[in-house]
Amino acid sequence: MTPDVKHMKWWGWGEEGVFFNYLNKPQFAPFVKKALDIDLRPRKIDTIAFDPDTVPDSTLPDDLAAALVAVTSPDQVSVDPHERVVHGHGSSVTELLHVSRGDYGRLPEVVVYPATDTEVAGVLAAAVEHDAVVVPYGGGTNIARSLQLDPAEKRPIISLDTGLLSGLRELDEDSGLARVGGGMQGPALEEALNDRGWTLGHMPDSFTHSTVGGWAATRSSGMQSDKYGDIAGIVRGMTVVRPAGTVTLRPVPSESTGPSLREMFIGSEGRLGVITELWVQVHRLPAERVVVAYMYPEWKSAVAAIRQIAADEVPTTFVRISDGNETGFSLATQKAATTLKKKLEGKAQAGLWAVMRRRGWNTDQMCISYVCFEGLAADVAARRKAVDAIARRHGALSLGTGPGALYDQKKFDTPYLRDFLLEQDVMGDVSETAAPWSKLNGVHRAVYAAAEKAFAQLGRKGWIMSHLSHSYHAGACLYFTFAFKAGEKPDAEYALVKTAIQQAFVDAGGTLSHHHGVGMEHAPWMEQVVSTEGVALMRSLFDAADPGAHLNPGKVIDAPLTLFDNLE
Amino acid sequence: MTPDVKHMKWWGWGEEGVFFNYLNKPQFAPFVKKALDIDLRPRKIDTIAFDPDTVPDSTLPDDLAAALVAVTSPDQVSVDPHERVVHGHGSSVTELLHVSRGDYGRLPEVVVYPATDTEVAGVLAAAVEHDAVVVPYGGGTNIARSLQLDPAEKRPIISLDTGLLSGLRELDEDSGLARVGGGMQGPALEEALNDRGWTLGHMPDSFTHSTVGGWAATRSSGMQSDKYGDIAGIVRGMTVVRPAGTVTLRPVPSESTGPSLREMFIGSEGRLGVITELWVQVHRLPAERVVVAYMYPEWKSAVAAIRQIAADEVPTTFVRISDGNETGFSLATQKAATTLKKKLEGKAQAGLWAVMRRRGWNTDQMCISYVCFEGLAADVAARRKAVDAIARRHGALSLGTGPGALYDQKKFDTPYLRDFLLEQDVMGDVSETAAPWSKLNGVHRAVYAAAEKAFAQLGRKGWIMSHLSHSYHAGACLYFTFAFKAGEKPDAEYALVKTAIQQAFVDAGGTLSHHHGVGMEHAPWMEQVVSTEGVALMRSLFDAADPGAHLNPGKVIDAPLTLFDNLE
């Protein structure tokens, strides 16, 4: 019997029975028609039946199987076909494209669920002894192909599911620090903390299924990072089990003890060991939380306003602006007004539209912005007042708290959209970067130009939109969503568009990824971003730390499968 | 002719002609008498004449000399005895003790001043080819023995002075980012930035002589880190020249590109290469700057107040509290009142003392606190009001802005005190840690107990005092200053006391150093702090990145000279 660990659909994102639905969004189908020249059709399938007969038998060697059972228990070791398929991929769009069509790719020979550090150490020792590969698996949400397995790998592959390494183990209320199992998923942790009046506040799009250890291993960032920090700031201590021993880093607020081991494990994507436990910063639940929406006439003034909020050190939980395209998309995904309250809001919105029209705003260029404030009521009021003033100086109109409440409810729905599009034969995905403030507008322009050029090469209508989020003193993250109608070779077409966008990031002074990680998807650009000698140094570290290449090899650098492979 | 690069006294801290003076501080001598049972005597020496004849000739091999001149120029390569002595040590108290007595220790064979990345690469190539060691030298201010040379090193040692790798090279005003030469010293950089309306805001005690590259290489933090960040937060991009090539990390606000190379170089103390250029965050000079002083009845309530300021996210530039002993020391180092203004302030102070006495405060336990606010006048006023309220709730009295202005003036004077004490045959030094809020009081108690025990073992009266500074969400830094009358074996006595304090840090849940680095001084505790396997991983990195051990070997881990060696 396999342990009771929650997994996503084997063939797509999220929970069975949950989907993106456009039928209750009257403006969505016309929007897609205009944007992609596609006639949407109602969803045909609610699920894809899993057929174990389509899965090749595991070729796990008997001695390795015996060794894994010996260090755990029979219930913690599985060669079940469904288990192996679930653990054989992450959530990148190309992986889901193939898996949902029954093309599983390289599957792990076995899935193991260690429940303690000792068991993890046992699994690693068995892997080294039997010359196997270990790929740590958290929630399976990674979209940078950090979990995809190399078809050319001849050695047995063990998927090490961290699901049993879970639980809120300690809460230091004086310090705002919690000790948490690496395999704990977002909702379970947040619930356990909320019960005691605390919150982690780390809210990546993948929150509902991803794990704390996975966040650390992929250098994640949540939508509320302005207040709560990126995962590198949130994680203050950790335990990492390695084949040669266990690294324990005690939780301290900051330290000067040489090169940061903490910052080596963060982002290591399984290549340096298995992150089994973390000390994370937690915050008391705020007395008040408000999300205020603003509408700016155009992108540049909105970016300037956000830059000013950062420069003035106004404490915000998040600040976000959607560009003209994304604002248009947002308006198109609003549900039909069904309640009196919404009708009244509709009237208020109509009044705002009148003001905007009077001011001569171009509705295609308007940018909606959300700013979240948390704290004592008086602090929230003071901070909101400060941001109101900055927004006004940059030409914005306040839309109040109505749209913000809606934004807060919908915030984890986006990943379902990708599967919906896939079923409509549309390749849709996201890609994100970070850049200094001085380069943000240039990156934005360059990515649009690159995407449009790629769509033109495909000879198809495509769509791209963007928002700015995660602001820092020196810059911010730009997050792009793009889509196009798939043709004969969706992989290769995707590669063409994605490659164009990534290259535009790098050429315009941005980085490869702000918070999605590298995996195999972004590895080919690493030399351009951290320099050839930087990659060489990283390779020295990986080779020295894992001389037998047992730990998720081929991720971050030296990827065996690149996007370019799909072009052939 | 040697390049015009500013260096400190060859035998002590800072500039020739600048000293700590106690004669204008009427309460200082009685204080020292009480604290250390020592009768101070006026300073006997103003300087120590340098005698080149006491320095053994350089044994620099001719071929290496020729190679170094070939990659730079004759003017950039020096075997001058004074140069070699200056570059043969950092500023740890044991190094200064010996150097000031003419016991120079291991000296570098040669000092080189490369002026470009290409020249640095040339020096490194020459070192590898001729099997020499390279020790990068910035301002020489390090007190963790990161610059001390190993007497057992048989290979030629090249001191690579970064002084010509200087200059504010680019200022990105939109992003608040500056590109700076690694060898630029604090005052020159701050002046260049101030001229254009900007500030770095990084103010370590060593500021007047230390360099940007040195700050990065030792994982430094300045007294204003609450606002401006630790150096790891300030540095967003960098260039590091290594024997195999040059690593260039572009400036971005945050990124998810695998293990952080930036965070590997920060704190690397020369072991991974030479940091030649940095992109650092800079801020506009604040419209207003105010330092407000508060007096708390005792330590615990002051710590609780500071924790609350952090939890409420009140933007401050720094928050600092001195414990009872340090508050007493502060009062004892005040200059005699000579102006009417000061007399009036004295009267105001007398009024405060009356209030304190009425409240029954124990004057030995009172803690002075400084809080700095910067920004627009309205923001400063609002933040000060918020801190005033928190301070009041924790029993504090506001002392206004008078003492704070004084604090601001004196802030870089402390290091001179150590030399003054040395001349009085007193070993005085500092040691600092960081810990979670829940452990700070325990660390404070444990360090006092450990120091008192060590003083008792020496059979001498000793002094210890502390302040809390650098506050974070999860904890803060505790900074200790200690002193005792030296006996026959000042090295060994120092080792006994310092060892006791460092061990107390680690045992009580603190870290080894918050911002002084590791060097050789703290290396023996690394396994206790980052675990045995953590040190093993770091060793893998250093060995793989520098297989010939040419780059400042024996620092951070595997130190050839430990404090314990001095005990024998």
TrEMBL record, chains A, B:
<comment type="similarity">
    <text>Belongs to the FAD-binding oxidoreductase/transferase type 4 family.</text>
</comment>
<feature type="binding site">
    <location>
        <begin position="218"/>
        <end position="221"/>
    </location>
    <ligand>
        <name>FAD</name>
    </ligand>
</feature>
<dbReference type="GO" id="GO:0008610">
    <property type="term" value="P:lipid biosynthetic process"/>
</dbReference>
<dbReference type="InterPro" id="IPR036318">
    <property type="entry name" value="FAD-bd_PCMH-like_sf"/>
</dbReference>
<dbReference type="InterPro" id="IPR016166">
    <property type="entry name" value="FAD-bd_PCMH"/>
</dbReference>
<keyword id="KW-0560">Oxidoreductase</keyword>
<feature type="binding site">
    <location>
        <position position="418"/>
    </location>
    <ligand>
        <name>substrate</name>
    </ligand>
</feature>
<feature type="active site" description="Proton donor/acceptor">
    <location>
        <position position="479"/>
    </location>
</feature>
<dbReference type="InterPro" id="IPR025650">
    <property type="entry name" value="Alkyl-DHAP_Synthase"/>
</dbReference>
<dbReference type="InterPro" id="IPR016167">
    <property type="entry name" value="FAD-bd_PCMH_sub1"/>
</dbReference>
<dbReference type="InterPro" id="IPR016164">
    <property type="entry name" value="FAD-linked_Oxase-like_C"/>
</dbReference>
<dbReference type="InterPro" id="IPR004113">
    <property type="entry name" value="FAD-bd_oxidored_4_C"/>
</dbReference>
<feature type="binding site">
    <location>
        <begin position="205"/>
        <end position="211"/>
    </location>
    <ligand>
        <name>FAD</name>
    </ligand>
</feature>
<feature type="site" description="Important for enzyme activity">
    <location>
        <position position="320"/>
    </location>
</feature>
<dbReference type="Pfam" id="PF01565">
    <property type="entry name" value="FAD_binding_4"/>
</dbReference>
<feature type="binding site">
    <location>
        <begin position="269"/>
        <end position="275"/>
    </location>
    <ligand>
        <name>FAD</name>
    </ligand>
</feature>
<dbReference type="InterPro" id="IPR016169">
    <property type="entry name" value="FAD-bd_PCMH_sub2"/>
</dbReference>
<dbReference type="Pfam" id="PF02913">
    <property type="entry name" value="FAD-oxidase_C"/>
</dbReference>
<keyword id="KW-0285">Flavoprotein</keyword>
<dbReference type="GO" id="GO:0008609">
    <property type="term" value="F:alkylglycerone-phosphate synthase activity"/>
</dbReference>
<dbReference type="InterPro" id="IPR006094">
    <property type="entry name" value="Oxid_FAD_bind_N"/>
</dbReference>
<dbReference type="GO" id="GO:0016491">
    <property type="term" value="F:oxidoreductase activity"/>
</dbReference>
<dbReference type="GO" id="GO:0071949">
    <property type="term" value="F:FAD binding"/>
</dbReference>
<protein>
    <submittedName>
        <fullName>FAD-binding oxidoreductase</fullName>
    </submittedName>
</protein>
<feature type="domain" description="FAD-binding PCMH-type">
    <location>
        <begin position="104"/>
        <end position="285"/>
    </location>
</feature>
<dbReference type="InterPro" id="IPR016171">
    <property type="entry name" value="Vanillyl_alc_oxidase_C-sub2"/>
</dbReference>
<keyword id="KW-0274">FAD</keyword>
